[in-house]
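Sample 3 of the quickstart, ligand zinc ion:
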Amino acid sequence: MTIPANEDVAESSGATGDVGRTEGVAFQQEDGDYLTVMLLAAGLARIRDDRRRMDAGEYLTRTSAEQGLLPVPWRSGMTRLWWRFHTAGQVPPRNDLALFELCRTPFNEWPIELRLSVADLEQSLLDDDELTPLAEQAARLSGRDVEAELVENHVFRELMLVAEMNANDEGGVQTNYCDLRRLLIDKPVLTEAKVRRLVSRFPKRGSNGQPIVQRFIQAAYTRRAAQGPVAIGVCDGCGNPTQRGVGDCGTAGCSGRPTSLNIEAVGGYYVQHRATRRFFHDPGLVEARVLDRLADVQAEGTISVEAWPGLDAYDIRVSFLSRSGVVEVWGADAKDQVSPGLLGLGFTWRSDPPCDRRFLVLPEHRADQPGYVADLTTELQGRVSGVSVVSEDAFVARVIGKARKVAER
Ligand SMILES: [Zn+2]
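Result:
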């Protein structure tokens, strides 16, 4: 990677703009029903986005061919379903309203038998009028969750810009990248004092004189005005703000309890954007946990750990060290997703930087879910080879075991 020397970096950083995102989902014949689910989810996401924009007073200028019709992916999904119902000898949903109703129904209660993984069959696409986590995962995989993608890309672009502009070489960019990724995982709430410390850590200014790290913060967080002592309700497990009157943080697998974060506000404080929480914070929790546990092992000198190597080619790279040097290298990608079927469909592995063994690491709350590992493994077969699916505890245990063996050599 080259380090841009001027302010025109916004465009050039686009080269790395797709890091961490799914690309090139390869469909196989038996994935037909997953494709239908993805189309419907993409359609629902579009309908939601359109509704939000209209609520915000924006006039939608669609091409006249599309006017008055629901989005293309929704209609394609409906057509595919029509054929599935028809060949199964069932009566297809009569109209859009009937199909919306079907989207609120768990797949295993549909009149036709969908070929989805066991865990996915218990899910639905809509929970009342909200997209379910599965629908969001499906819409994202289909690349049609426009709103989510815009926010995610925006945050990512600003993060890369701060990392690149505040570094002198590739190693510096990588260090900055890790620090900023970690910030998004560790700090769902930022105080003004923390922002000041970030500005002194990343001092580079843009052409308007504003530190570019502030632009990144504005993209990833929303500012709340406040003065004096403020008590912010947060979860002591994941750090996410809790809603007043609701004890649960809503984070998958989190067993934290509501607590109070007391700060002294000077004008305001910052809370993560919903999309930042969804795409960077919550999925990052498992990555951070594994990295922290491996850091303890690293202190013993038997392994060396790299976080998000190659600017996030995957999450963790572990080198096992003997007296004579590096003996073996393991790579791990940690994934916290609701649907094992969709995770398997969208999973890819970047070969650079190289490693001898590859692991797909699951948080315990996914690995413990009946059928999850089996469904994921089935879906990965023939798509990605040589990847072992393990829970986070099992992965850390394997690293410790291997490190001991290597050290004894
Ligand atoms: Zn929590």
